[in-house]
Design a protein that fits this description.
Keywords: Cell membrane, Cytoplasm, GTP-binding, Hydrolase, Membrane, Nucleotide-binding, Receptor. It catalyses: GTP + H2O = GDP + phosphate + H(+). Its EC number is 3.6.5.4. It is found in: Cell membrane; Cytoplasm. It contains 12 helices and 11 strands. It is of the alpha/beta class and 344 residues long. The chain has 2 domains: 89 residues, Up-down Bundle (Four Helix Bundle (Hemerythrin (Met), subunit A)), CATH 1.20.120.140; 194 residues, Rossmann fold, CATH 3.40.50.300. Helix 3 runs antiparallel to helix 4 and helix 6 runs parallel beside helix 7.
């Protein structure tokens, strides 16, 4: 869920003229000053709808795990089948070994005698493993909050930016987008569509330096006193070292545009890519020091265990998860909800 922290208003710095003037668009009124961190609770009916979609999205992974406990005996055969199911779900060797070893120890210590009790113990272990990944996304500590969004092509990065922007608007945040993927015309056009759809200004150039676009966006956001500036970046593979250096340059230039920026460096990863997603987290975290993850396309996949792999190997907070194409199909990650959908 979103949390906001509003400090006393500070006079904006002198306006800086952006290299490319943004298209005028109605701005969203800033949220009122809040004295402390306050969670924004979703209505009960909306929460139920989200849980239904989450369970449907994780159904394949859930079925592969849950079927093992139906009328099962607590023996080596069960553990072998569970090991295979966890590996197939892309939990990874490290997380799978940890979960099985700890589960066997708890079964012995607690004298668990039936499959339902063992399943409940596994559910508790998964909750303990994933809970450290859960962290509220905070806005309002900076004006604007500058977010740099990275990810490989095909992960759903630009679409995710549009969804997040809309999500923030519904929580009273004024948003500016920067089309920093200057290498791919379709990415700029896609972001412009999201901007028009949500009445959000988009800083864009037909060609040029992505870092310059990012810098202009920060200056514009500061001058207008906006709440959030979200910077799209070019999709690239972590093995393309020269392009990873370009990402580092964008990050450095954002820091020159505003002290402490970017305040959030997020990586969007495709939940279907399994262990490749873990490799992406490692590479981008090494290069950019990620502050959070957005995991998309969990709908219909049998690879929902990748979060366990991330938790064990590179526990970067998971801010949001997505299970479909609709705006509401991207929601804050809550470990208890995820585990309930997986083993409920």
């Amino acid at each position: 869920m979103f949390s906001f922290f509003k400090k006393k208003p500070v006079a904006p710095e002198a306006p800086a003229t952006p290299a490319v003037a943004p298209t005028p668009a109605p701005s969203v009124a800033p949220s009122p000053e809040l004295p402390e961190l306050l969670p924004i609770e979703e209505p009960a009916e909306k929460k139920q709808s989200w849980m239904a979609r989450l369970k449907a999205g994780l159904a394949k992974t859930s079925n592969n795990l849950s079927v093992l406990f139906v009328g099962a005996k607590i023996d080596d055969a069960l553990y072998d089948e569970l090991e295979a199911a966890l590996l197939m779900s892309d939990a990874g060797v490290d997380a799978t070994t940890y979960l099985l070893d700890t589960l066997k120890r708890r079964v012995k210590e607690d004298k668990l005698l039936d499959a339902a009790a063992v399943k409940a113990a596994l559910k508790q272990l998964l909750l303990e493993l994933l809970t450290p990944l859960e962290r509220p996304f905070e806005l309002g500590r900076h004006t604007p909050t500058v977010m740099m969004i990275a990810g490989v092509n095909g992960a759903g990065k630009t679409t995710t930016i549009g969804k997040l922007a809309k999500h923030m608007q519904t929580h009273g945040q004024s948003v500016l987008l920067a089309a920093g993927d200057t290498f791919r015309a379709a990415a700029r056009e896609q972001l412009m569509v999201w901007g028009q759809r949500n009445n959000i200004t988009v800083i864009s150039q037909a060609s040029g330096d992505p870092a310059a676009v990012a810098f202009d966006a920060v200056q514009s956001g500061k001058a207008k006193g906006l709440d959030v500036v979200m910077v799209d970046t070019a999709g690239r593979l972590p093995t393309q070292l020269h392009l990873m250096e370009e990402l580092k340059k964008v990050q450095r230039v954002l820091g020159k545009g505003m002290e402490g920026a970017p305040h959030e460096t997020l990586l969007v990863i495709d939940g279907n890519t399994g262990q490749n997603a873990l490799a992406q987290v490692k590479a981008f975290d090494d290069a950019l020091k990620l502050t959070g993850l957005v995991i998309t396309k969990l709908d219909g996949t049998a690879k929902g265990g990748v979060l366990a792999a991330i938790a064990r190997v590179r526990p970067v907070p998971v801010y949001f998860i997505g299970v479909g194409e609709k705006i509401d199909d991207l929601q804050p990650f809550v470990a208890a909800e995820f585990v309930e959908a997986l083993l409920g």
